[in-house]
Amino acid sequence: MSQLLLQDFIDETVAVLVLYKSKLCESESYLSLTKSIVSINAKMDIVVYDNSPTSMVTQSDCISDNWRIHYIHDKTNPGVSKAYNEGFKITKKLNKKWVLLLDQDTTFPRDAIPRYFQAVCKYKENFLFVPTLKSGNKIWSPCRYFLKRGFPLKVVNIGINPIKNASLLNSGMLLHISLFQKTGPFNEKIKLYFSDFYFVEQYRKHFTDFVVIDLVCTHGISTITENRKHVEESLTRFRYFCEGAKYFANNSWEFLILTLVVAARTVKLSLIHKNLNFFAIFYDYFFARNSNSKKQ
The whole model's pTM is what? Predict the structure, then answer.
């Protein structure tokens, strides 16, 4: 591998990291990718989009030998879709070619950056590149995609894969700016849950395949907590889940499917937490608001 060519790839790449109530210096994505950058003695641009109520990034964090940090703090918490769209705008403004999307809880191996580079060299820019994301013993990305839902896989094929019956999680996605211009932006109405599925559906309209890199990462799945002690956190995340599902539907059939998916989640969480507020939120998003919009 040519060090000069690897450096060119790094110089043309912008990482986009979304934070929420997590310090930059404690983000697994940031820490593990920093080790990868240090191992090849390089420096990369990174957009840190902080959705936290108060800033999670200190002045000293922004002084780095390995990163050129572009920091945005948005306490209104518009979600990951807005953050990634802003990251693409900055990438274009900086005249860069590649965007690496990150959440805060993915752990990358030390050789992550060289492996992305190797994949790009082999398959060129006309693909969406992703690592394998594992949590526990399950592979969550890529995943099997059926009836607007993702199901974990047991094995993944390295290299070119058909996108038709697959979907992907955001964290670790690498794509050329020209692909993003074809797929269009993330849907900013979908703030968290289903944002990746929406983006992949747009990608699927223009492209038939994606590339799985020979790279396995440990991923913190952003689930609605089933711990009874965290009912308020579960209610907040469930609102995002309902909101994302509603805006993810493109027609009446998809709306029905997603209504059933959310209904099942509503029953499960209500039983776990012994709290009927989950039903109230479900009704508000899928019946009350829908009824009001029809009247208007």
Answer: 0.91
